[in-house]
Design brief:
Helix content is 7%, strand content 50%. It is mainly beta.
Amino acid sequence: MQIVRVYAGDDGESHFEDLTVEQFAEIVNRVGPGDITLNARPSPSFSDYHTAPRRQYVMNLAGIAEFETADGTVKRLHPGDVLIAEDVTGHGHIARSIGDEFRVSLAVPLAEG
């Protein structure tokens, strides 16, 4: 299981950080306001640079997701992997669905802090 955090650095760019299960356990119960959403996207698909719409964690349920930051770093998430999206400001990141399978994910809002 891979747990990846994407956040906006002081330089205004998005960066990745790999987290442990223990670190994720501290985050997962801080659910914030808003809906929990189930998303399905065809593959392949591409979403150019964008910021996260809110602080949230996104569990990849099916398909393969790929995320990229401006420095060229790429993280590929498979079913069971989690992206913690906290880059709500700055330049943002690129998101792709790759392969032939629909990408299905569940997005859960996180409280501030």
